[in-house]
Design goal:
With 280 residues, the chain is mainly alpha-helical. Helices cover 83% and strands 0% of the residues. The chain contains eleven helices and no strands.
């Protein structure tokens, strides 16, 4: 009993050490990317602010209402960009931490899922910057009441951009979520296909909460989500039969048997070691 408790505590400590190492690697990676970006922080902010600056009326500009905002806001943006650039490495560290607990057939899916999820997140951010921002900012500037001069605070603008990038990046992960749910057996593609009317309604509801209170940005988020839902459903229909076949179960059983045999070998080795110590 004491030996099992010691093994459990040792395993728990080893997991904590592994988690600490993965978090440390991730922090170092973000820092390595962030340091060179500090030099270009002002240029990065100018690039991100271009969709708004290009539609502001003549003579209007952005402002800073806090003393440290002109210095801290570009640095905050540079740190955010560093995290975005380091996402593939961060996701790899996450995979490296959970990989020992996965079956062989689950490990085969990891790299395609990591690559596709990263690409979709980048596509969501690019769609927000090149398609959504110009339309939304143009709409906001045109509906301003007469006599109101638009002077957006740079910190408020950055917070708005962050929320939009995150909303569109996560929304574009919808196909990955559908594939994972179908692979896990939580839902079947046929069931999802029959729920299309509900999906349409909930898509617009989610878009309403994730975007500003205007019809343009809500629609620009809801329509891609519906298209991505269909893409995820299409892919799920092709991967689910292979996942639900006997090959997966056999492979899982084979892995389980191999792990059981390894555990028995370790227990037998410990028993022989104890007997040898007792004989001495």
């Amino acid at each position: 009993m004491e030996r099992n408790q010691d093994n459990t505590e040792g395993s728990f400590l080893s997991h904590l050490l592994e988690l600490r190492n993965r978090l440390l690697y991730s922090a170092v990676a973000v820092l390595v990317v962030f340091i060179p970006l500090v030099v270009f922080a002002q240029d990065i902010y100018t690039l991100v602010a271009r969709p708004l600056m290009s539609v502001l009326p003549e003579g209007a500009s952005m402002i800073a209402t806090e003393v440290a905002s002109p210095f801290l806001t570009p640095l905050k943006l540079a740190f955010f960009v560093a995290i975005v650039i380091a996402i593939p490495f961060l996701l790899y560290q996450l995979w490296a931490f959970v990989a020992p607990g996965l079956y062989r057939h689950e490990r085969k899916l990891v790299f395609p899922l990591l690559a596709s999820s990263t690409l979709l997140f980048y596509c969501g951010m690019a769609f927000a910057y090149f398609a959504v921002f110009p339309l939304v900012f143009s709409f906001f500037t045109r509906v301003a009441p007469a006599g109101v001069q638009i002077m957006t605070d740079i910190k408020a603008y950055l917070d708005f951009v962050f929320s939009m990038f995150l909303a569109f990046g996560l929304a574009f992960e919808l196909p990955i979520a559908i594939v994972l749910l179908t692979r896990a057996g939580v839902v079947e593609p046929k069931t999802l296909a029959t729920k299309r009317p509900y999906v349409v309604v909930w898509t617009f509801i989610v878009a309403m909460f994730l975007t500003p209170p205007d019809v343009i940005s809500q629609t620009l988020l809801a329509i891609p989500m519906l298209l991505l839902f269909e893409i995820g459903l299409f892919v799920a229909r092709r991967v689910t039969p292979a996942a639900s076949g006997t090959g997966r179960d056999d492979e899982a059983d084979e892995d389980s048997e191999a792990e059981l045999e390894a555990e028995m070998d370790r227990a037998e080795a410990e028993l022989l070691a104890d007997e040898k110590k007792s004989g001495d």
